[in-house]
Amino acid sequence: MRAEHRDTACQRLLQCLVGEGEEREALARACSRALEVDAVPFEVVVGAPADRIRPRITFSARKRRAELAAALGLAEHPWGPPDSVGVRPDGRGGLTTRGYHRLTRIPAELCVPGVLRTHLLPLMAAPGPEPELYGRWTGPSAWGALVEACERALGVVLPAPRPRPTGARGAIGLSLRALADGRLLPTVYADHTALPPDDELREQWAASLPPQERERFERALAGVRSLGPREGGSWYDFLAWGVDARGRPWQAVSLRLPWPRS
After folding, report:
1. Rounded mean pLDDT of 95-110?
2. Within 13 Å of residue 5, how many CA atoms lie on the same side as its CB?
3. In the chain, fewer beta carbons within 10 Å around the N or the C end?
């Protein structure tokens, strides 16, 4: 993609994700650095409430992973270059940057309860002060079984989803984030194959949000779709529901980004 087209597409997307000011400028600089090493933005994550779940853009650079990591401040990690990198505003005029590493085993530093360990197929992890493990649920395929296992093992109450996933086998999963106090916080996920068709999904998801949050979601979706048509499949990669360290619920959606090729 030509540099001028690339920059225009990036600015159009950012205008729909964050307001004017330091946050947009910081995110624009990060996007520029990533694009300079031929990274591809493939995902936008938006959530609610917006003051806790800020918009994220995720990049991959298969042939230049080390350069992408260095460009976004994640060079020389002991696990090596991450497979993808997410950047989001931190609420203070800067950015939070996180690397995601593919893996096939549960890292030793994460003490996962037995019932969850038994039915968790690890897919990737994000290291850091609060490392997080992501995996596919291989236990009973019903959505309720996943939620019940997390709530019993970790002593949390997860929010009720809307739309409610079907629990199709291989289409639901969870992540476990390790807090400094030793607790694990779960997030439960459903990909688009466990969810209604796009139009129905959009309607139900929007209806689950307060008016201001609904407007942010619709603006983000419009920004993503403004970049071009999807080449096939859903606009939605996954929906997620979780709780923060104080037990407060949140929800997020991953939107597939049709990054222009020319």
Report:
1. 88
2. 8
3. C
- The answer to whether 223 and 210 are in contact (CB under 8 A) is no
The whole-number average pLDDT for the span 57-75 is 93
Predicted local distance difference test score (pLDDT) of residue 261:
58
Q: What is the pLDDT of residue 1?
A: 55
Structure tokens at 138: 């291989």
- CA distance to 39, 133, 175, 212, per residue, from 126 (Å): 19, 7, 10, 30
Does residue 222 lie in a domain region?
A: yes
- In Å, how far are 116, 124, 173, 175, 216 from 170, measured between CA atoms? 15, 16, 8, 15, 30
Dist CA 20 CA 50 (whole Å): 16
Q: How far apart are CA 188 and CA 176, in angstroms?
A: 9
Residue corresponding to tokens 């476990």: 176
Residue 262 falls inside a structural domain: no
Q: Quick one: how far is CA 203 from the chain centroid?
A: 20
Domain annotation covers residue 62: yes
Range of the domain at 179: 3-256
